[in-house]
Write a structure and sequence with these properties.
Helices cover 40% and strands 23% of the residues. Helix 2 packs antiparallel against helix 3.
Length: 175
């Protein structure tokens, strides 16, 4: 028997990474204050490091959490080195990271709201790989796509959270 309500436990499970980095950020602020107050000068420097690292990691963790769906969707995502694969009940395929020409997040209005957004990866040859945000392993796409220069995950978060947003181009190869 748990003392925590199931809804709160589910929320904590989803937001655990941002909560950890938020705690590191707060610990850094506490150390900065402690060092600034003259209690321990070394803690000021340590606090700056903790605060900077925590803030940077917190930003990415919040984006990653917002781009992942809590409700499961069909299919499984496989990421192996620079190759992204999706195995779904109706479609699937593979795309190599260097061959990606565009990354989008699109709304799929014909599906229930909790699974209504998907990653769309377009290859140089025009082949498209559509991956629901709630597919098993889709949360790892954030890390897999991060090496693309200038990728704008904030646009994807806005498409998922914004009212009426139908599509967001997260990244497109220049030229």
């Amino acid at each position: 028997m748990s003392l925590v309500r199931p809804e709160l436990a589910a929320w904590l499970r989803v937001w655990r990474e941002p909560l950890v980095w938020g705690g590191l950020t707060l610990a850094g602020l506490w150390l900065i204050w402690r060092g600034y107050a003259g209690l321990e000068p070394l803690s000021f420097i340590l606090g700056l490091g903790c605060f900077g690292a925590g803030l940077g990691l917190l930003r990415d963790a919040v984006r990653r959490t917002r781009l992942s769906q809590t409700s499961p969707a069909e299919g499984v995502v496989l990421i192996d080195e620079a190759r992204i694969g999706y195995f779904g009940p109706r479609d699937g395929g593979f795309i190599d990271l260097p061959a990606i020409a565009a990354v989008e997040i699109v709304a799929r209005p014909h599906l229930p709201p909790d699974s209504s957004h998907a990653w769309v990866l377009t290859a140089d040859d025009g082949a498209r790989l559509v991956i629901p945000l709630g597919a098993a392993g889709a949360e790892r796409l954030f890390d897999a796509l991060s090496p693309l220069p200038g990728i704008d995950f904030d646009a994807g978060v806005a498409a998922v959270l914004g009212p009426g947003a139908r599509r967001a181009i997260v990244w497109r190869r220049a030229g």
